[in-house]
């Protein structure tokens, strides 16, 4: 969730906590009670959207990364043996083509990694009679194909996650807009009489309503930046 939203959510939580601590002062007002109830419901919806979006994003990235690592390791294992075979047979071109370190594979673009994996499988099958002496069989090519296919299937996962995250942000915009409407046009207005009758409560409410920017580091002695209310 955007830092601005996080800071705003902290403000909403602070306001709800303050009001619930002082329910004896406003609890007789059905309008006030409804406003606080609506605010709590919106806060719960915000938590649901935020937690869901963050979990989905982390999950898709983690799965893709794990599949890629398995593919890289298997590719490196098979390529090393092919390189040894090429060296023994004097095939300089193939030796050069297979001359990749594991680090090379780890920084390779997804599309290039997939293409190279497919090529390695083909080389294994073309040279299967020789590679058997190096303990590389057709099963090695099949395993590479399987790992490559599984990794390829996850290529769209980050894009899907981005689309879902965009939808979540739009949903959060709407939810925070509803919270602003309640705070600006209901609770702020209902608090006005307390400025005179309960000045301490009113002052505490105004302090809770400030959106503090926790996203900026401050040197010792500096105060946190406060954003406009609403």
Calculate the mean pLDDT score and round it: 84
Structural class: mainly alpha
Q: Going across the biggest sheet, name each strand in turn.
A: 1-2
By DSSP (H or I, 4+ residues per run), the number of helices equals 11
Question: Cα distance, first to last residue?
Answer: 18 Å
**Beta strands, count:** 2
Query: Can you summarize the main beta sheet?
Result: 2 strands, antiparallel
Give the quaternary arrangement of the chains: single chain
Helix percentage range:
over 70%
* Overall geometry: rod-shaped
SSE succession: HHHHHHHHHHHEE
- Give the uncertain stretches in residue-range form: 216-223
Q: How many structural domains are formed by the residues?
A: 1
Fraction in beta strands: under 5%
Gyration radius, in Å: 30 Å
Please tell me about this protein's structure.
The chain has 230 residues and is mostly helical. The chain has one domain. The protein contains eleven helices and two strands, in the order H-H-H-H-H-H-H-H-H-H-H-E-E. Strands 1-2 form a two-stranded antiparallel sheet. The radius of gyration is 30 Å and the shape is rod-shaped. The protein starts with a helix and ends with a strand.
